[in-house]
Amino acid sequence: MAGIIELERVSKHYTKSIIGVDDVSLSIEDGEFVTLLGPSGCGKSTLLRMIGGFEQPTHGRIFLAGKDVTWEPPHRRDVNMVFQDYALFPHMTVGQNIAYGLKMLGVGRAERDAAVVEVLRLVGLPDKIDQMPHQLSGGQRQRIALARAIVRKPKVLLLDEPLSALDARMRDQMRMEMKHLHDKVGITFVMVTHDQEEALTMSDRVVVMESGRVAQDGRPQDIYDHPASPYVANFIGTTNFLPGGVVAADGGTAKVAVSGIELTALTDRPQRAGDVVTVGFRPEKLRVVPPEAACGNILSGRVSEVVYYGLGLRTALELDGGETIYVDSLLPDSLARSGLPPLGSRLAVAVEPHNVFVFPGGGAP
Ligand code: ADP
Ligand code: MG
Description:
CATH 2.40.50.140; 2 domains; transport; binds magnesium ion; 9 helices; 35% strand
């Protein structure tokens, strides 16, 4: 079945040399919460604006609910957009702000009032109906902007960095509220963010973008545990990278020489002995083991730096092979009492084969 949004090889060339979006194909299911994630300038907003009709592609086609809307203006599409700065009308009450779109559509007074009351209840602000925007907090204004965007019950809601104007506390709270709102209204949400945590916690699916293209498209956990490239592994979470060479490969297992030792990796990409690869593993997947431990997949070295970050410790470990890696460990009570590991002390860490990424080619991002 075709998705509610279908992008067919969509590109946006602003000029010959400025390519905003480069050959993106994407299918979004009805009711999904999809996030476009990537660093500034990778084309997220351009892609979102093209779905909304605020920008036209230079190549490719866009379908909404099966209909080719590539050349349709925004008001002819069953979508609504929430902008970063909310853009509420300052001289109108909350109720008037929300009702405005319905009024323009010719919806009658009684129906408008009922819709406003219902949507204010949905965003948890039923008592703000007669207030002016300046009387509200940032988080409340954002909720009103959401209410205004969903009151017309569009099939798709487009959100461009909707939480970026909020302070950190409010952002955390709004993340959960927006997710709940999405579950309640059943509208397809497509959200743009450069914040990986936002993407991982809020969405059903994350589309990671790199220079106008899709670098990876998958569920948050798949992207975190099976990044498609060093770029993705580096942008989402933290990854240690080491240059390596495949020593032996057999089906889904590879032995890779890194930093003077051999690591075993489970990998779904075919490897051949002699291949030059980049190995990656996440700091929190490393387990501190006794130096004489007999199990495999152990890296050892000397502690060169220890940073306390509340939840735990990040330890820089200078490997015997010369490279430095980071090890994250939750802080056990005993360690908190006895103090941090001394600089220069020996440390060994083990990594499970399924936590070792093997990427083709040399060169960490
Ligand atoms: P993001 O939202 O991921 O930060 P954008 O979609 O805004 O990225 O921009 C993607 C690329 O397109 C950037 O190189 C940006 O400078 C360029 N770009 C965006 N809008 C325009 C425009 N109106 N005219 C020319 N170049 C643009
Ligand atoms: Mg943007």
